[in-house]
Amino acid sequence: MAAPANSTTFSGDVWAELRLADARDVPHIHRLIHQMAEFELLTDLFAATEELLTSTLFPSPAPPPFTSFTALILDLSPSPLVPDSASTIASRCLDLSASPLVDPEAAAFASPRGGGRITAGFVICFPNYSTFLAKPGLYAEDIFVRAPWRRRGLGRMMLSAVAGRAAELGMGRVEWCVLDWNKNAINFYEGMGADVLPQWRICRLTGAALDKYKGNQEEAADRKAAE
Amino acid sequence: MAAPANSTTFSGDVWAELRLADARDVPHIHRLIHQMAEFELLTDLFAATEELLTSTLFPSPAPPPFTSFTALILDLSPSPLVPDSASTIASRCLDLSASPLVDPEAAAFASPRGGGRITAGFVICFPNYSTFLAKPGLYAEDIFVRAPWRRRGLGRMMLSAVAGRAAELGMGRVEWCVLDWNKNAINFYEGMGADVLPQWRICRLTGAALDKYKGNQEEAADRKAAE
After folding, report:
1. Catalytic positions of B, written as ranges
2. pTM for the complete prediction?
3. Chain B residues with CB-CB distance to A206 below 8 A
4. Taking CB atoms and an 8 Å cut-off, how many pairs form between chains A and B?
5. Nearest to residue A101, comparing CAs of A161, A147, A50?
């Protein structure tokens, strides 16, 4: 099968780096979130803009990583990478000599870090809290790898790195969510040692249903009704 | 029915206040978390200590409320309360004249704020993040009211107050979890405008399964296996 025009073929050794993101990564993060919404059949919920992502994910001054909303970027490089102690979270070498990889979107996802790198995925995580443990944990809101780069161990690399960081920080748990129809993902997570909790359901108050509570109007209405 | 010894009977007007907690509330928070674990049939997961709660929930200096882990306390007072602009989140008056309330644990839950107040519940919440909205939200880890004080509108008051604060802060969502067998809670939450999401499942990596990732040993092992 010939590669589509503008696509890039990767073969031989390719170096993967999971690194802290910064505001220069926002355009790619925005498009990756949209791809994730498409994969999850949830584009009707997609309302992110580059401006909102910049202001909410990259405030100034930046809090230390993993103490607030933390964005990580997965970059792939055709040449060896020198880890940067300030931003590299994990790195590894992929051997693609047995099965070269065609990335039709490589040019569109050129990494802002340059050097022929491309961006292939991202993680958004932030601290959560377990009262039963009386300890913080990390919640991974998203772990996403673009389609051509899947099934190469990169999702495992990303989740392992987040789990490793949580364990090193003395946190009690790493949690994330999965759609119950995504059996591949469930098998993968269980293989990494995670429990998929059968009984808990997420409750969500959003949009107009949330705005109703502004100024505690609902509470006032409730009080009135109870009189 | 005679009230048990040491119990306190509340009747007529009682004033409820939801307020920011401080380190003086830790002993009550610790016992309330244990009561919640009993209610959820999850005492095997209970590992909280007062020392851990103090260090993780009340660091010094304290970050602004709702920007990090935030503990709220529900106090009930036999006399009218003057709201404190620095700590009061919501307040209301309960009319118990039609059905007086016996609290067998009132003495044990005397509020550290004094004035004959007792502590009847708590909330732990913290910011989460929606990539689809590109906005922070609030996640309520726990919303708990001690048994004798239930079905008096206090859970609604607490959740309304959290939702109100989130809406006023421009947040996009309030989320929390419920056990799928807790039909009373599900009906109550839906009545407040929440969606209970049927498809999402929580994945959790904890204990020994999490410690495995310390120092990225798992990642190294995986790399080895793939060679």
Report:
1. 189
2. 0.91
3. 137, 172-174, 195
4. 274
5. A147
Q: pLDDT (tens digit, 9 = 90+) per residue, A28-72?
A: 999 999 999 998 888 988 999 999 999 999 999 999 999 999 999
Q: What is the pLDDT of residues B18-57, one digit of tens each?
A: 999 999 999 999 999 999 999 888 898 899 999 999 999 9
Token pair belonging to A52: 């909102």
CB proximity list for A88: less than 8 A, separation 6 or greater: A17, A18, A19, A81
A213 is catalytic: no
The amino acid at B131: T
Work out the minimum CA distance from B170 to partner chain A, whole angstroms: 9
Count Cβ neighbours within 10 Å for each residue of B198-216 and write b for 16 or more, e otherwise.
eeebbbbbbeebbebbeeb
Is the distance from CB of B42 to CB of A132 less than 8 angstroms? yes
CA dist A117 and A106 (Å) reads 9
- What whole-number distance in Å separates Cα of residue B195 and Cα of residue B166? 17
Residues of chain B in contact with residue A57, where contact means CB-CB under 8 angstroms, are 129, 134
Tokens of B99: 């059905």
Task: Determine which of A141, A154, A206, A222 to mutate to test the interface with B (most B C-beta atoms within 10 Å).
Answer: A206
> Looking at CA atoms only, how far is residue A5 from chain B in angstroms?
31
